[in-house]
Automatic annotation (TrEMBL):
Parts of the chain that traverse the membrane: none
Region (Disordered): 1-26
PROSITE patterns: WD_REPEATS_2, WD_REPEATS_REGION
Gene3D superfamilies assigned: YVTN repeat-like/Quinoprotein amine dehydrogenase (2.130.10.10)
GO molecular function, one term: chromatin binding
Keyword set, alphabetical order: Nucleus, Repeat, WD repeat
Protein known as: WD40-repeat-containing domain protein
A GO BP entry: RNA metabolic process
Length: 371
């Protein structure tokens, strides 16, 4: 499979030089954030004997930032070489389906949730497509997988109203929390704290990882702190939960008219990140109406923690968290990166200034060196 360049420009030289001296791969994000441009498009329909592109359900990068992985609605995992700007391999999970695929801290192994047969989480070696282990226990669809930032421990959330903690070295879970609609989870950058978002109660719960059996040490009430956000979105439609890498903020994504930027220490609303044209057509975590496709979230922080990026029906929006919101706590986008395609899934490379967005096609973004 070969990548298809957009007619905007041929991305091959830029991507091949991503780690070299000819580009700004590790320049401060603030120097390049306004200059990102869609650079290379990967279109399955043009390459395979396929009548249409499947929907891309999730995007993830490995720790070195050299591989990009998608899980797709045709029950495949696709892996791309970032520096070369090319497709590397396709892994097929026809029997079990695949979503929420995540790299472990070893680039040659991944975990992912099932969409067929049962609700097990699968641990796969990518070099030979062999299963290392199954993680059985959930009795409802998995809605979120969150890898620990420093170890191969991970958290899973499920429609069965449990949160389970796992270690990849054993098939049995190491801990369980019983909560109502615990559909999203995230680790803080230290790995000492994890958060669980429960939309039905409009709350985010924070746990000490060493003492998670005890009650959460903090509960953030989104209903109380939503600011000008859509009241309905305080109880439903949550798409993403993420800590910033500097540990100062929590991002709660919403498929409504904006996202919630919270102070990670007291849960107060720092800003309501307004989306001028609303959200994507994807389902939020835990939703199922039979007519739409789920996603792993259309928003994320930049690696420096300063910016929040979000997709939508078109364009890529960027908010600067250092900007002061208006008197109603609304923060308008600082930059609008134009692109006609819907961006239903968004991820920022952890090592390089490179962004990936997707709906039915995967798109790589790089800073324009001539801007």
């Amino acid at each position: 499979m070969a990548p298809v360049p957009m007619d905007l420009d041929d991305a091959s030289p830029a991507l091949r030089n991503l780690g070299g001296a000819n580009g700004p791969p590790t320049a401060p994000v603030t120097e390049v954030i306004a200059n990102f441009r869609p650079t290379k498009l990967f279109n399955r329909e043009d390459i395979e004997d396929s009548k249409s592109n499947p929907y891309i359900l999730s995007i993830d990068f490995d720790d070195p930032g050299e591989l990009c992985m998608t899980s797709e609605s045709d029950r495949t995992i696709q892996i791309y070489n970032v520096k070369e700007g090319r497709h590397d391999k396709m892994l097929i999970s026809k029997k079990y389906g695949v979503k929420l695929a995540k790299f472990t801290h070893t680039s040659s192994s991944v975990i992912y949730a099932s969409t067929r047969e049962n609700d097990a989480i699968r641990y796969l070696a990518t070099h030979d497509s062999s299963f290392i282990r199954y993680f059985d226990g959930h009795e409802g669809a998995v809605t979120c997988l969150a890898m620990h930032p420093g170890t191969d421990n991970f958290i899973s959330c499920s429609l069965d109203n449990t949160v389970r903690l796992w270690n990849t070295q054993t098939k049995n879970w190491t801990g369980t929390l019983y909560l109502n609609t615990p559909f999203l989870s995230a680790w803080d950058p230290s790995g000492q704290v994890f958060a669980v978002a429960c939309p039905s109660s409009g709350s985010i719960l924070l746990y000490d990882y060493r003492n998670y059996q005890k009650a959460p040490f903090a509960t953030f009430d989104i209903v109380k702190s939503r600011g000008p956000g859509d009241p309905e979105m305080a109880f439903r439609g949550w798409t993403k939960l993420e800590f910033s890498n500097d540990g100062k903020h929590i991002l709660l994504g919403s498929r409504g008219n904006g996202h919630f930027l919270l102070d990670s220490f007291d849960g107060n609303l720092k800003a309501f990140l307004k989306k001028p044209n609303g959200g994507t057509r994807r389902l939020a975590a835990g939703e199922n109406d039979g007519g739409h496709v789920e996603s792993s979230g259309e928003c994320c922080f930049s690696p420096d923690g300063r910016y929040v990026l979000s997709g939508g029906k078109s364009d890529l929006l960027v908010w600067d968290t250092l900007m002061t919101p208006d008197s109603k706590q609304v923060l308008e986008p600082a930059h609008v990166l134009e692109e006609k395609r819907e961006a239903a899934v968004v991820a920022y490379n952890p090592r390089y200034n490179m962004i990936a967005t997707a709906d039915q096609e995967l798109l790589f973004w790089l800073p324009d060196p001539h801007a």
